[in-house]
TrEMBL record:
It comes from Melipona quadrifasciata. Keywords: Signal. Pfam families: TMEM145_N (PF21892). This is GPR180-like N-terminal domain-containing protein. InterPro entries: GPR180-like_N, GPR180/TMEM145. The keyword Transit peptide does not apply.
């Protein structure tokens, strides 16, 4: 019995050390008007991207930009000398790759302006594809001359809530 418990303890410790969970929280302050936030390998049917953002006040046209791993997507914009507008122009708005964070479309963005004048956005997106696919998440306000000032919380999952072994792991972490 002891050897079984020891085995599971070692496996659990290994997973904690060598697996990358994806819950990100921070404050992004940059003079750039386009910034990379995260990457995650979503499974074919189960992927969910949840977000909460607080906008610093100067962002007028902030957008979440969702690139995938095709040659004409992420590899063509990062790293590159393209402008913010050029990086945004390669995305397909019709399939939800551009998510405007605006109070004028709260049902799409989840954004509301509170009494303290800070805009808070909370929503989610689901990822479906024919194969596990890398997605790269960036924030951009191409009209900004002062950069970005955003607080964020992001959760990237590959399984339903509570499914410990897959929920917060990128597909590459458990498909090796």
């Amino acid at each position: 019995m002891f050897s079984i418990l020891l085995f599971f303890f070692i496996i659990f410790k290994f997973l904690l050390i060598y697996s990358e969970t994806k819950i990100l929280q921070g404050h992004l302050v940059t003079r750039e008007n386009w910034a990379f936030l995260a990457r995650f390998c979503f499974l074919t049917e189960q992927g969910t991207f949840r977000y909460e953002f607080e906008l610093g006040g100067n962002e007028q046209n902030l957008k979440i930009l969702l690139y995938y791993d095709a040659p004409n997507q992420w590899p063509s914009v990062y790293p590159s000398n393209k402008t913010c507008m050029e990086k945004e122009a390669i995305l397909w708005d019709g399939i939800g790759q551009i998510v405007p964070l605006s109070t004028s479309i709260p049902e799409e963005s989840g954004c509301v302006q509170k009494e303290d004048a800070i805009i808070r956005c909370s929503n989610y997106r689901r990822f479906r594809s024919s194969r596990p696919r890398w997605w790269f998440i960036a924030l951009a306000d191409c009209s900004s001359k002062t950069g970005l000032n955003i607080s964020y919380w992001i959760s990237l999952t590959n399984a339903p809530h509570g499914y410990f072994w897959k929920e917060h792991f990128s597909a590459d972490e458990f498909c090796k």
